Amino acid sequence: MAKKTKILRVGFDLDGVILYNPVRIIRPLIYIFKKLFLKKRLKKFWIPEKPWEKWLWSLAHKSSIFISPGFEDIKKLVKEKKIKAYIVTSRFSFLKNDFQSWLEKIDADEYFSGAFFNEKNEQPHLFKEKIIQKLKLDIFVEDNWNIVEHLNNKYKGKIYWIYNLFDKTISYQYKFPSLKKTVTFIHNKLKK
Length: 192
What we know:
This protein has one domain (about 10-190): 3-Layer(aba) Sandwich (Rossmann fold). It has helices at about 25-35, 50-60, 70-80, 95-105, 110, 125-135, 145-155, 180-190; strands spanning about 10, 20, 65, 85-90, 110-120, 140, 160, 175. The radius of gyration is 17 Å and the shape is globular. By secondary structure, it is an alpha/beta fold. It has a 6-stranded parallel beta sheet with strand order 5-4-1-6-7-8, sandwiched between helices. A two-stranded antiparallel ribbon has the order 2-3.
């Protein structure tokens, strides 16, 4: 009798992972801006509250302009029943309509076992930690180094990181330049 292979439970962030977002390259500069100008309100991540802040945040998310190369590979792995895929994004409640729109564009109902967004506007790293633990993911793919660092210290599953140009020098075991390379790595791991 053939040995039944385990289906990996893999979570994917949306912006910067499933969706290509060129603005993510300036994330280190945004971090510095937040530290300098938003000290009083900053816990770990800035949560937009005022209308102009929400508008600015929405504008930044409009830069998620197309589906990342590698997405077709995720769909293939799901169809072949090699992975069970989930979307876990820390997008805030005021981005719900755009989130829903992207779920329709990528046929999320067909390929993903669940899609979760931060509708209660929690701190992004804590929201993702909670959902990842609830789903018992084997792997989570994230592009934000601060979130990767937090999750790597809190979760026994593997956290794969899609780095950007400015973060390239950070040493990390599971770092990849793109979604395509990340999914290829997952696929090769399944072959072993």
